[in-house]
Amino acid sequence: MRDVQNFTPELFELLRQLKRHNNRDWFARNKARYEHLVRDPALLFITAAVPRLSRLSKDGRTNPRPLRGSLFRIYRDIRFSADQRPFKTHVGIQFSHAPAKDVHAPCYYLHLEPDGCFVAAGVWHPDASVLIQIRNAIISNPEQWKRVRQRIELGGDRLVRPPRGFDPAHPFVEDLKCKDFITSLDLGESEVCRARFIEDFVDACRKMTPLVEFTGKAMGVL
């Protein structure tokens, strides 16, 4: 017996419908469908991923609770937003590291959205002090960083010019410009719905682990 329920095409169909009918009345009528097609399979996926990811890093942390766990809430925070649509139209799952307390710490991330699925890992939108820690680690450990970069492509936002105080002629100056230290792999909906998707997900995370470990050590959480 498998320990994880597969994601299905019906998950993406429900998210497409939610995008067209992003209001509380529609969601209330379809909440049971959301729980059956989206929330429950996501929680089972998280639970099944825990032992697999623990083999990549002993500090990985997941929490399969419906709220305030590894599964992000479906409800948008619209208190200070001009966009008053109440619901997210994607599924976000974060696998973070035990000593880390916020969403900007090193993590693995799974994003499920119609025509926009991906696996990602690393550090997204860290504050200025964390950026300096990571940049200093690159300066201090160039050979180790070189090995990381040979395995992954970096995405996210970058500065136009080198950060203040760093050598503009440094061989990794383009990496020092990064405002995010993330890497990602795009997925098709059919890939997500494959029977072996959890193995594919873990394989993708394994390839991204050097970035998670490097940034985690730079931040002092590993």
- Distance linking N and C termini: 35 Å
Known CATH architecture: 2-Layer Sandwich
Number of strands: 5
* Estimated radius of gyration: 19 Å
Please describe the biggest sheet, giving its number of strands, its sense, and whether it closes into a barrel.
5 strands, antiparallel
Order of helices and strands: HHHEEEEHHHEHH
Work out the oligomeric state of the chains in this entry: single chain
Q: What portion of the residues fall into strands of 2 or more residues? A: 5-15%
Reading side by side through the largest sheet, how are the strands ordered? 1-2-3-4-5
Number of domains: 1
Query: What number is the mean pLDDT?
Result: 91
The low-confidence runs, each spanning 5 or more residues with pLDDT under 50, are none
Structural class category: alpha+beta
Structure commentary:
The protein has 222 residues and is an alpha+beta fold. The protein has one domain: Protein of unknown function DUF1054 (BirA Bifunctional Protein, domain 2, 2-Layer Sandwich), CATH 3.30.930.20. It is 42% helix and 13% strand. It has a 5-stranded antiparallel beta sheet with strand order 1-2-3-4-5. Helix 3 (31-54) packs across helix 8 (197-219) and helix 4 (128-140) packs across helix 8 (197-219). The protein is globular, with a radius of gyration of 19 Å. The model has no long low-confidence stretch (mean pLDDT 91).
